[in-house]
Design brief:
It is a single chain. The chain is of the alpha/beta class and 512 residues long. The protein folds into 3 domains: 272 residues, Aldolase class I (TIM Barrel, Alpha-Beta Barrel); 85 residues, no CATH class; 125 residues, Double Stranded RNA Binding Domain, CATH 3.30.160. The protein is built from 17 helices and 16 strands. The longest helix is centred in the N-terminal third of the chain and has 16 residues. It starts with a strand and ends in a 13-residue tail after the last helix. The structure holds 3-methyl-2-oxobutanoic acid and zinc ion.
Length: 512
């Protein structure tokens, strides 16, 4: 018997991107969308166009740049939202509008201040309105996880009758147990008379760590679309992770298949992590640094005798290179090109030449060059923002007052300040705030060494708060204070209000 197709709906660029401080610009979103296309996802949820001009532009740009998957835009059950989505999807080859309204009594009463009959009416009206512009309409019954099943079935029947082609049953709060979520999907299969006219979609959140289990339970009970994000990113505890669902359906031969090319999983996971400045927890299933590392003597012995003793997935299946030592200072341009392409970076001959020069400098100081180093080369050290670190000098040590002198390039100007602090990084932050004349608070700060065991670079994530908004930045350098300052500035460069009037320099001159 042939396998049943499961449609993979990726919402990394919409629900995933809602993580505070991790917003991407349009160019970064296009890059990720292209990689999602290569990975083989069926639908890309590209954004929520009414939410901001930036989101509108990103949906439009992705619609132009990515042609194979369906491009989807989110709306509330409101005509002006749908109008914005229609505008943003204007150039999409295969557009989809994703509209919906609350389904649980909790949401109906406390979010919409409404009643059951009214929300069904508003949901139906939204589907009918969207259907005037786009054929493919997905309806979401928000907080369906906590909704009464009989009412949910009435709502789903009504929106399918109005023209919905896909019905999304989100466990918005990550509340359900797998057995209950599966039963909910089965209830809809058995009790919605027109359910065969739509695809049931599952969209689970991970508040209790059950998103993937709930998603699989939904599939086993009749859902044929899964809504997922790369690395499981998303608000709060995140969404269901694409890599987990894809590899579960791949590993367990239980009759389902996706179009996912699993060898592309790991490179894209790393790219998303870098671009969103969100480190991956080392023990994360499938893509964590330790996912295929065997450290205990008993396990190492077992793996050496036969990998299947302790590995249910071969690392290469998900694109983890067999040998993590991939390049050295003696490698040529072709080797570099091959590995960059494997990680999703297409370069022209001129670009490759410039990257190769930088690669040689980096490789010279290292025993081996890993994927992580390559991503740092491409993403981490480049200062893409308007505010550029031009010079950094710190003094610190036992019995000394930590001081920092910082020079920042702001357009054509170099501005300088010195400060003392409770440590060298703190002093540098105070100097930067003095130059920018802004109150910026460091909210979170994470320092890691290079995860591939050459302990010679510091990788820093910094989260800053400015006027009640959070921004996350990443920096890497051989020097821990410089890496920290880079991360701080990377986050600050995302504060549009501070950078909007500063021209971005063509080539950065970095002395630090
Ligand atoms: O979690 C949720 O309910 C959502 C909907 C907007 C689909 O993300
Ligand atoms: Zn969600």
């Amino acid at each position: 018997m042939s396998n049943e197709k499961i449609w993979v709906f990726d919402t990394t660029l919409r629900d995933g991107e809602q993580v505070p401080g991790c917003q991407l610009n349009t160019q970064e979103k296009i890059e990720i969308a292209k990689q999602l296309e290569t990975l083989g996802v069926d639908i890309i949820e590209a954004g929520f166009p009414i939410s901001s001009p930036g989101d509108f532009q990103s949906v439009r740009a992705i619609s132009k740049a990515v042609r194979e998957p369906i491009i989807c835009a989110l709306t509330r059950a409101v005509e002006k939202d749908i109008d914005a989505a229609v505008g943003a999807l204007k150039y999409a080859k295969r557009p989809r509008i994703h509209t919906g309204i609350g389904a649980s009594d909790f949401h109906i009463q406390h979010k919409f201040m409404s009643n059951r009959a009214d929300v069904i009416e508003r949901g139906v009206a939204a589907v009918k309105y969207a259907k005037k512009f786009v054929e493919d309409i997905e309806f979401y019954a928000e907080d369906a996880g906590r909704a009464d099943n009989v009412f949910l079935a009435q709502m789903i029947e009504a929106v399918i009758k109005a023209g919905a082609t896909v019905v999304n049953i989100p466990d918005t709060t990550g509340y359900c147990l797998p057995i209950d979520y599966g039963a909910k999907i089965k209830f809809l299969k058995d009790n919605v008379p027109n359910i065969d006219q739509a695809i049931i979609s599952v969209h689970c959140h991970n508040d209790l760590g059950m998103a993937t289990a709930n998603t699989i339970s939904g599939v086993m009970n009749g859902a044929r679309q899964v809504e997922v994000t790369i690395n499981g990113i998303g608000e709060r505890a995140g969404n269901t992770s694409l890599e987990e669902v894809a590899m579960i359906l791949n590993t367990h031969k239980i009759g389902y298949e996706t179009r996912i090319n699993s060898t592309k999983i790991y490179p894209l996971s790393m790219l998303v992590s870098k671009m969103m400045r969100m480190p991956i927890q080392p023990n994360k299933a499938i893509v964590g640094a330790n996912a295929f590392a065997h450290s205990s003597g008993i396990h190492q012995d077992g793996v050496l005798k036969n990998r299947d003793n302790y590995e249910i997935i071969a690392p290469e299946t998900v694109g983890v290179p067999k040998n993590s030592i991939i390049l050295t200072a003696r490698s040529g341009r072709h080797a570099l090109k091959y590995h960059l392409e494997r990680l999703g970076f297409e370069q022209t001959t001129e670009e490759l030449s410039a990257t190769y020069e930088k690669f040689l400098v980096m490789a010279d100081g290292k025993k081996d060059v890993t994927d992580d180093d390559l991503l740092d080369l491409m993403e981490g050290k480049s200062q893409k923002g308007a505010i550029v670190l031009n010079h950094l000098q710190v003094t610190c040590g036992a019995g000394l007052t930590p001081t920092a002198t910082v020079h920042l390039q702001l357009g054509d100007e170099i501005k300088k300040a010195s400060a003392i602090g409770n440590g060298p990084f703190n002093a540098a932050c105070i100097a930067i705030d003095t130059i920018l004349q802004e109150q910026i608070d460091l909210e979170d700060y994470l320092v890691q060494s290079n995860i591939n065991r050459s302990y010679d670079t510091a990788k820093v994530h910094a989260k800053v708060k400015h006027q009640n908004h959070s921004y996350v930045g990443f920096g890497v350098d051989e020097d821990i204070v410089t890496a920290s300052v880079r991360a701080y500035l990377d986050a600050i460069n995302k504060i549009t209000a501070l950078t909007v009037n500063i021209p971005i320099p063509e080539e950065e001159e970095v002395e630090a």
